[in-house]
Amino acid sequence: MAVHERLNLDHWLHEFPLQRFIDEQKAWCQKYERPFSDNWLPEVSVISSPIHLAVVEQIRSSIFDRGHDLGPSSPADLFLWRICEYSEGPITRIGGKAFRDRSTPWPTTNNGRPLSFLAQISFLDSKDLVPHDMPGEVLSMYGTWTGSGYVDMESLVFEWASLEGGQSQSNHDVPEWKFCAEGVIHRTVCYPECDESVHSTGIDVPDLFQATQISTHPFRIQGEGLDEALVFASLSSFQPNQDWPFINFPRLPHYTHPKGHVNYLSSIFELMMGDTGSINFYKDKSGKFTQSWDCY
């Protein structure tokens, strides 16, 4: 039985047609007397919202419609986010209660202080995409943050939990992460060689697929390392946009300054690992399950 909510992609494709963004760009170029390229497509750097995903999926279709190729593909389960007040159980999420083995002591710093539960990735709906000998079904991350939404990368501790031995737990001795969000899953494909395939056509489109995902070819920011390892998942930073930042948020909270301009409270709902970095989870050539991270 599935544990994650499934994304209704058709709904979001209807809500955010690609032509809308092209027309808006063309109108902007006309207004400010700038040249408009017929190869222009919207920029997406990190996929965390339904707008991002709708645009990327349509960009791919547009590239195929123009007779171009994106190279070899591999299946991927990508996660968008739904904000909630409370969450528990063996699902992918940020914040909430950790799903962990009952007998395992709560992770601590070197001086014995308990760490905060930050996020977890659940592989229960993705078993066909991951190694068969993984230490558990849920991989959790604990640590501290340096302010705003920035994670202290030196503090991180990772922990596996099995479905049979796990339960939801919270530690009230440490602050919880400042928001709670559950992962909404979408089965798609990634194109690990798309950079070369796309840029050789002259189409103005950036890297397509940095996201929190389960895949053997998640996007690597620096594009190097782990060549002899079996990468199977990635947890990505994100900074929400103003429009539809999450599945159930049409707009971010905001306040209006006395002078009248609006400030959107994006920092409340961001997850930042270095400079918009990602953590890659992999099995190395010795058979050890481990992780590394990189950023821009």
Task: Set down the secondary structure blueprint.
Blueprint: E1 5-6, H1 9-15, H2 18-31, E2 46-47, H3 50-65, E3 74-84, E4 93-94, E5 98-101, E6 116-122, E7 138-143, E8 145-147, E9 150-151, E10 157-161, E11 166-169, E12 180-190, H4 194-199, E13 210-211, E14 213-215, E15 230-236, E16 243-246, E17 249-251, E18 254-256, E19 262-264, E20 278-283, E21 289-294
What can you see in these coordinates?
A hairpin with a 2-residue loop joins strand 8 (145-147) and strand 9. The strands form 6 sheets. Strands 1, 3, 4, 6, 7, 10, 12, 14, 15, 20 and 21 form an 11-stranded mixed β-sheet that branches. The chain has a two-stranded parallel ribbon with strand order 2-13. A two-stranded antiparallel sheet has the order 5-11. It is globular and about 65 Å long. The longest helix is centred in the first third of the chain and has 16 residues, at 50-65. The chain contains 4 helices and 21 strands. The protein has one domain (37-102, 114-294). With 296 residues, the protein is of the alpha+beta class.
